[in-house]
Amino acid sequence: MKILSAIALSFSALMLVNTCLAKDIENNIHNDKINTATKSWQKTGHAALIKNGNGRITYPFDEKLPMLTCSPLHVCDIELEAGEKIQNVAIGDQVRWILSPATSGKSSNSTPHVIIKPTDENIATNMIITTDLRTYYLYLISKKTGYVTRVNFYYPHDLVQKWSDNEEIEKETRLNRIAEFPSITAVNLDFNYTIKGNGKHITPEKIFNDGKHVYIKMKEDISSKEMPVLMIIGQNNQAELVNYRVKNGYYVVDRLFDKAELILGVGRNQEKIIISRKSTKNCFFNCK
Fold first, then answer.
1. Which residues share a beta bridge with 125?
2. Which residues of 159-196 are buried (b: 16+ CB within 10 A; e: fewer)?
3. Backbone angles phi, psi at 3, to 5 degrees
4. In the record, which residues are listed under signal peptide (predicted)?
5. Over 227-262, what HEC string results?
């Protein structure tokens, strides 16, 4: 019995995983269709409606008047954008059409719905839904056959604006990243440094200077771990504080030095890397 119970439990878990995976795949395909339709709208000015295999029709908001076909003894679901708050629903024929608001999903970002059901066939009316974000206009038809179970919307104007905002953010990020580093000219680079010590985690991958600044390239995962302290070794072999900043995996030191130490920890567990400049002669990739 225990074996059978374990098999049944494993089968149930597998079915749940498969269901979730299928849902994710369906959503990804639907989002791809929305992106494709929006890009086409950008080029042609024509926003297509999207038909899905599950009986759902997705209309472009504010580009086409949705015509929703319903049927007596069946309900139709009008799904709005997640996070929207319905303020009012008005329908032309309040006698032969039944309306019912509903929500789905988590309360913090729930999806609003309006469930509608005609009480007779061969009738038509219009409906207006106002929310805290926009106003929806729909035309409703009741027929005995051919009803649509579910409609929702995609938002070409909002999506294009989101793409534009993301491009601006990426552009600003790139410009800020470039501005974080001083201007570097390849002919001025000096890679003639040696690295010694017992700190595997804090050992730099590369060290060079441009005649004004020293750049110490650390390992990619250094930002997720404790960072070592950089000290300049000056006259009489004394440690000195120095101005530096850490940007995109580099220690950028605002002066040249002949010797420095990267130190992490104290006592017996201390890790230390000694960086020494071999000469002041310009050197490139194959320095000896």
1. 140
2. beeeeeeeeeeeeeeeeeeeeeeeeeeeeebbbbbebe
3. -65, -45
4. 1-22
5. CCEEEEECHHHCEECCCEEEECCEEEECCCCCEEEE
Domain 193-277: which topology? Immunoglobulin-like (2.60.40)
C-alpha dist (Å) from residue 149 to 34, 59, 77, 145: 20, 14, 6, 12
User: Is this prediction's pTM over 0.90?
Assistant: no
95-125 exposure pattern, b = at least 16 Cβ within 10 A, e = fewer: eebeeeeeeeeeeeeebbbbebbbeebebeb
Question: 39-48 pLDDT, tens per residue?
Answer: 988 889 888 9
Q: Which two tokens stand for residue 49?
A: 């409606």
Report domain extents, the chain. 23-160, 193-277
For residue 283, count other CB atoms closer than 10 A to its CB. 16
**Quick count: other Cβ atoms within 10 Å of Cβ 258?**
14
Rounded to whole angstroms, the Cα distance separating 123 from 119 reads 9
Q: Is 209 exposed, middle or buried (0-12, 13-18, 19+ CB in 10 A)?
A: buried
Q: What is the CATH number of domain 23-160?
A: 2.60.40.2020
Tell me, yes or no, if the two domains 23-160 and 193-277 fold the same way.
yes
Token look-up 């000469």 returns: 279
Q: Report the run of H or E that residue 276 belongs to, with start and end.
A: strand 271-277
The answer to whether 38 and 30 are in contact (CB under 8 A) is: no
Query: Which residue's entry shows tokens 């309040």?
Result: 94
DSSP string computed for 143-183: -SS---SEEEEE-HHHHHHHHHHHHHHHHHHHHHHHHTS--
Tens-digit pLDDT profile for residues 70-115: 999 999 999 999 999 999 999 999 999 999 999 999 888 899 999 9
Q: Where are the alpha helices (DSSP H) in 187-239?
A: none
